[in-house]
Amino acid sequence: MRYLVTILTIWLASLLAVGDTVEPVPAGMVAIDMRHGLPESRVRALRVLPDGRVAVATAGYLSIFDGIGFVNEPIDVEKGITLTSHGRNRQLFYDCNGILWLKTPLWRKASATLYSGTGKLHAFDRKSGKDITYKAKDLLGKGEISDFFVDAKGCVWVIDADKNICAVANGTRQKIANIGSVADELPSAIHEEAGKMYLCYDNGNVCVVNLHSGLFEYMSRASLPKMRSQLINGKARWLSGKLWLPFQRHNRNDSSWMASLDTVGREWNVSRFDGLIYDFYIDGKDSVVYSLPGLDDNVFCVDQDRRGGTWIGTGNSGLRHIAPEGIRLITIYKDSYPYPNNGYFPDEKAKSAADRYASVGLNCSAVDSVSGYVYLATRKGLMVVDGKGKLLAILNDNVGLPNNNVQGVIVNSGSSGNKKVCGEVWFTTTTGLSRLRHLPGDTMEVINLGLLDGLDLNGKEFSSQSIAVDSLGFIVAGFPGGWCKLNPDAADRMDHVVYKYPSGKEDIENVDDMTDGIPASVFWICVATAVVAILFSVYVIYRRKKTGRSVNPAPEGNVGVTMMADEASEGQSGETGKDHLCDTLVGRLRETSRQDAAGTASSDMEFVARVNKIIESHLDDETLSVVSLSSMMAMDRTNLYRKMQSVMGESPSAYIKNMRLSVAARLLKETDLSMSDIALRTGFSSAKYFSASFKEKFGMLPATYRKN
Q1: What is the reported pLDDT for 464?
Q2: pTM for the whole thing?
């Protein structure tokens, strides 16, 4: 009994101890991560854009999130503008010209333990997210750039090689002051407020420059402990006349200090925190918020939007968004969808339009009784047909849809007195809810509602034909196991990204017919091209047989290498000739892989080309693995695995091994290299391991394969 009482006492004490430390997740928090298209889970910088979208910088990508999905652009370090200042963690800026600027560190190993480096600066178009560094470089004026900043108002500032701080506008630099006399080092952060520039240094100094006169007004130092300090991630925040700066002891993460400067009374307030503060914001009570309850990961970066919501970039878990109370537009119910399905055709006009433009892949259709427009929900997008039967647009990912498979569409016809007016068009893709409006000149605008508005179906898809308008004018859409409701009037009161069609690039005025959503002219051109290609292939095979050439069939499971046996140079001998032949085989393997990927999207082709190039250059490196490949691709290991599985149909390790064995099979057939040499050239650690792997793939030993 005594032992039982002791155990119960310990158990109750542990419950009391643990109970106080468990904090609930904030209401309205949404997790946005790799499941939604974020290419990497480690978010290093973020910035809320004026139109409500969010720009996110990870280790290898610049991504823009519009509430439903991501647009991802790889960061090419080699194309960045060199900054001679000391490289820091990633910082993301947005200027008044609509350009996104990203500062990244470029570390190089200086010794066995120390790293040193400079920074790189990249520019991206805010609408498309595309890298425009080569164009934007001219906007920064002539001359070397030591460091680069954008203030809270969107004005661009650079520090040149002579330590002049300059305002940049229209490609010219206006010198404001020389800061070389203030300190030997450059400031780590700046803030402009009321005609004054606050230069913030790692050692705790803040120097104030009058932007009108170019004179230094005063310098003040935070009362930090005696230590070698640094400003964390170049962060500086401003609220109600106070400048907030986080500091840490150099190369130590066990503690940090938050210093706030009252710029009116020129007084400092310094507080110490256990652990490192990566980023923070200040609430209305002058409290520092740097961690969140229920979040088991570091708050690596944070920003707030116009709605009062908070965006958090975590160290390893993607994005989090906390919406303020009452801001979510969409309510989700877990009972069955309460309305009958739409059906395919509301009338003969819709059926006629579907037969002409979308004979295959139609999910449902709708007709506007006022305008006579027909809307076809297809697997390739929403087709808009005018009252005369002319196809005006195919709305798909060209207007930001998260998925081209449009499941349902309705026309919400309202009324003004006794006169009916043309209402809005609402439609669902498999994963999203969108609104379409017509503007003058056959222009259309689309907004897409998604996670930020409360739409998170936990992996479920919207059901085909399941969308309706209830008696109160609310939009109702169904999915397996539930349905959701939206007040369309509330969407007008919120800031949303608006996409317009046409955008200047899309033009389908001359579309005369469609075959499964594809213009007939394009379809027949593709058919003619395929016929010509087949005839040419038959001719080549005939010529080869006639001249006595033979084709060696590729081994089963090969990644696609086919090569004429007599294409290798006859009489080729010696190590130089064999090296050349091996390089030739690798080059042709690359070309074949490109052809295999020709049917995919251009981004997938670029991805395949990058992977092949890296594997080719390290084919003889036995240490090449998934980890090293993901590092060289600047991708998260999990994301690389998923991408290669979807694009190439194989895991990274299997793809690397198959490429090694494919080249080895050719070397066996077309050279007299020994097993050890072939194993060495194709990255196998030993001839024994090479033989075992070869037999596992092709069903025979390398020596048997060479004889046969």
Answers
A1: 93
A2: 0.66
